[in-house]
Amino acid sequence: MMSNTVNSRISGFHKMTPAERLATVQRAVGLDGASVEQLGKPGSLDLHTADHMIENVISSISIPIGIATNVKVDGRDVLVPMATEESSVVAAVCNSARQCYDSGGFITSMSGTLMIAQIQLVGVSDPKAARIRILEQRDKIEEVCNGCDPMLVRLGGGFRDLEVRVIEAEGGPMVITHIIVDTRDAMGANTVNTMAERLAPSIAEWTGGKVYLRILSNLADRRLARARATWTLDAIGGEAVRDGMISAYRFAAADPYRAATHNKGIMNGVSAIVLATGNDTRAVEAGAHSFAARSGRYTSLSTYEVDADGSLVGTLEMPMPVGLVGGATKVHPSAQAALKIMGVATASELARIIAAVGLAQNFGALKALATVGIQQGHMALHAHNVAMVVGAVGDEVQRLAKILVEKRQVRQDVAAEELARLRGEG
Ligand code: NAD
Q: In which pathway does it act (predicted)?
């Protein structure tokens, strides 16, 4: 760690412009000129917009956007923008999607666009009766929720359902109200949070208890996106590959240690589109992992089976709370452009494409793992990163990466030696 003489108490920091904040940070930590110049460069997100998105902005970071090709979703070809810093992710989707393109691509569906908000009630001596008292107020609750967002109601969304549960918690029972709201093309966090806050005083009044938390649940299990695809034996390279992949899936289904990595692979595809479209990656990730643990034991989000023709059938089902309005989706110009590339008109269409790509990503990782291993494909691209880290420029990057892969030593020390050798030869 650098010497710790920085004073983090900077008065009025939030009132400065991004340039003033950057200069202040430079002075505060003694940042070198090259770093300041780097952070001061205009990216694809202008600083004015960035400054309105989050607090204390000094710069923005660019992440590569790659296009996944060969993707066919419900009979429609789509080019999918993916924002990721990880090599091999985009290539894996292109390869996996190509292998199921002729057998129909991805078939997708969606359970709906319902989000859940929770209201926590404590301190009632008769929690079971309190639950019933809340359920009795369904019409009133619907009126309050819909009154919060007439625009959403006009668009066909709004309050849909009510659930009240008594949960046993440390310190006594809690009465947890779920309001279930169709948020249409919005992810809906702000929408349902506003409703929960508006409703909370009435819930306290009806029950005599005390309300604490009023916020959405990221376990969006009423907003599930589903994808399915079939890979023929010819397309994947025979029975041995198929059976290896089935065995890899069964490993993930049975073991949380493996399931975590299996699902991380799915999220490589999912989060890349969520990010490229300005949606909330953490919301989708929290939903994915909590859904994967819904039985009480963390398991695979996807399944693989052999169909009657001997082909491999993969499925993915997971919460997909993404929107086309709200959050950064409307504000970030690159997010808007990404949505245009995909040509989606509704949040559900976007969610379904994301599920398809998550399944493609998963297939790619399983196939690599069950055959040549992940490193062969991964390292070829990773070698480019390592080459750049040791200072390769221009066509040196490609040449050095090739040498590292051939030597099967994609390491920085080897890369530095080989770069020196290359330059010596040149
Ligand atoms: P929002 O409130 O900005 O937009 C939603 C509103 O837009 C709706 O309530 C509706 O009035 C209007 N609208 C216009 N056209 C619409 C359409 N076609 N369909 C639906 N609504 C339409 O945003 P939001 O989606 O409610 O909230 C998303 C943001 O909330 C994200 O930035 C997320 O990061 C953030 N957030 C997340 C969490 C969490 O996940 N735990 C918590 C708080 C906030």
A: Metabolic intermediate metabolism; (R)-mevalonate degradation; (S)-3-hydroxy-3-methylglutaryl-CoA from (R)-mevalonate: step 1/1
